[in-house]
């Protein structure tokens, strides 16, 4: 069986801006991949190419072995874009039925809405929903056709805690049943909670690809935390953060920094050392600043 998604040497430009630059990416069946990147990294462009909304300037994009712009190749695809417009005068049930009619074996409307906490709202116009409820409805539609692959672009933006947890539970259940997921998000805790694989995209290119531990390991960076009234200037400190008497020192060599701290004679307590977090790795790999 071919991989659900294959990108081979894909480049996409918007005028003079290169959104994707020679990207190679394969999503195997049953995988759950988190796509990380700063604003403008090319995440939404990649999702739009896979869902057939855009075409590559060069390279090839394959969805279930075919061209994603051909409707027949998208029957097993569910997607929630970053921004979704729903007809405000249509009722929730009407929207669900309209989308469901495009699929041979859709999830019953009541079951789908209950899964996303929208039960009892079938007769309400979408314009009368709260922002969070509209986002839940957009997410529910991605699962209406019992897809084999879902593309979720910043899915929890606008959701409250309850809505986010409902989505996470649905994604876990879908993945456990063999479904393939590509998730883009700014929330690193979502990636750490859900994703088996992390792909870091910056300036249109893939900067890292592996599991969370692999990506963390690409950055030789640690955090040293101490409590102290004052600290001297210490060599090897990339960034020092202070909150009252609590100091967080970012360094490439925690052992040497601790030795320098002890040799300085400064009074301190509650020493702690932690390896690079996913956030540290993300900031380093993308060139972003905290």
Describe the structure.
The protein is of the alpha/beta class. The protein folds into two domains: 5-217, P-loop containing nucleotide triphosphate hydrolases (Rossmann fold); 219-286, Alpha-Beta Plaits. The protein has nine helices and 13 strands. The longest helix has 16 residues, at 161-176. It is globular. It starts with a strand and ends with a helix.
Quick summary:
The protein is of the alpha/beta class. It folds into 2 domains: 5-217, Rossmann fold, CATH 3.40.50; 219-286, Alpha-Beta Plaits.
Q: In which order are the strands of the major sheet placed?
A: 5-6-7-3-8-9
Number of domains: 2
Q: Give a count of the beta strands, DSSP E runs of length 2 or more.
A: 13
Strand content: 25-35%
Computed structural class: alpha/beta
| Annotation field: number of helices | 9
Largest sheet: 6 strands, mixed
Distance between the termini: 42 Å
Q: Average pLDDT, to the nearest integer?
A: 89
Characteristic key phrases:
290 residues, alpha/beta, Rossmann fold, Alpha-Beta Plaits, six-stranded mixed beta sheet, four-stranded antiparallel beta sheet, 29% helix
Give the helix/strand layout.
Blueprint: E1 5-14, E2 17-27, E3 32-36, H1 43-50, E4 58-63, E5 77-80, H2 92-100, H3 109-115, H4 131-142, E6 149-153, H5 161-176, E7 180-184, H6 188-194, E8 197-202, E9 205-210, H7 212-217, E10 222-227, E11 237-243, E12 246-251, H8 254-264, E13 269-275, H9 278-286
Parallel strand pairs: 3-7, 3-8, 5-6, 6-7
Antiparallel strand pairs: 1-2, 1-4, 8-9, 10-12, 10-13, 11-12
């Amino acid at each position: 069986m071919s991989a659900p998604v294959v990108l081979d040497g894909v480049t996409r430009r918007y005028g003079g801006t290169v959104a994707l630059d020679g990207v190679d990416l394969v999503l195997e069946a049953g995988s759950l991949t988190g796509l990380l990147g700063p604003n403008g990294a090319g995440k939404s462009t990649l999702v739009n190419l896979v869902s057939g909304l855009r075409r590559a300037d060069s390279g090839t994009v394959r969805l279930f072995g075919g061209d994603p712009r051909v409707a027949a190749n998208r029957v097993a695809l569910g997607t929630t874009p970053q921004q979704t417009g729903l007809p405000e005068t249509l009722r929730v049930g009407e929207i669900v039925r309209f989308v469901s009619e495009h699929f041979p074996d859709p999830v019953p409307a009541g079951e789908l809405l209950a899964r996303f906490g929208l039960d009892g709202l079938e007769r309400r116009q979408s314009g009368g929903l709260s922002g969070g409820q509209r986002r839940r409805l957009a997410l529910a539609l991605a699962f209406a056709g019992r897809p084999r692959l879902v593309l979720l672009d910043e899915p929890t933006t606008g959701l409250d805690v309850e809505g986010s947890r409902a989505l996470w539970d649905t994604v876990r259940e879908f993945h456990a049943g063999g479904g393939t997921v590509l998730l883009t998000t700014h929330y690193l805790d979502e990636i750490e909670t859900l994703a088996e694989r992390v792909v870091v995209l910056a300036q249109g290119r893939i900067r890292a690809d592996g599991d969370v531990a692999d990506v963390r390991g690409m950055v030789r960076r640690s955090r040293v935390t101490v409590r102290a009234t004052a600290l001297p200037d210490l060599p090897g400190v990339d960034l020092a953060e202070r909150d009252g008497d609590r100091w967080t020192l970012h360094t490439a060599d925690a052992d040497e920094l601790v030795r320098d701290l002890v040799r300085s004679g400064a009074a301190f307590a509650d020493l702690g050392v932690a390896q690079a977090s996913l956030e540290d790795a993300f900031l380093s790999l993308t060139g972003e600043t905290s």
